[in-house]
Design brief:
mainly alpha; 9 helices; elongated; transmembrane helix; Putative cold-regulated 413 protein; membrane; COR413
Length: 198
Amino acid sequence: MWNKMNFQEEAVQVMNSDFKDLSEVASRLANHAIKFAGIGWGGSFFGFFAAVAAIYLLVLDRTNWKTNILTSLLIPYIFFSLPSFVFYVLRGEIGKWIALVAVVLRLFIPKHFPDWLELPGALILLIVVSPDLVASTFRNDLVGIIVCLVIACYLLQEHIRASGGFRNSFTKANGVSNSVGIILLLVYPVWALLTYFF
């Protein structure tokens, strides 16, 4: 009887120890999952945020807040920073139809194809016809991040130069909106580089 009682106590201790180990492992797994999901979510969120900022700058370029920066560079930036879901929807049949309509309008009815649609049309064409190496591999890799960072830095430098200096780019009315938009372009590649290397 004594052995049976001793055996039960040992079994309870071993089971408690095992459950304690399992709870520690589950806790670490949950912490790592939350950490990596947060990093992944942050990358998607900042990518979407950067794409919206780039579209905002394209819209600003067509208004009276126009600057002398090269806004056509925003097209490859949007291409590389667009979230995967939106990118692959536009790369599918929907994008093909939009590209077909854009090409037909541009070729056969150029008077009815407004100037402000040229850059969005170029973006849709770029998304639809880009090879898989560029669309899948480079977009989701260090190459796409570096391209976005170079474009954002170049646009910021050109905007500061066109505004007449760093101070003017943040004090003039049209300079502030463009400066904020361009600085928002820097958020995604910096975050993506940090998560890529760390």
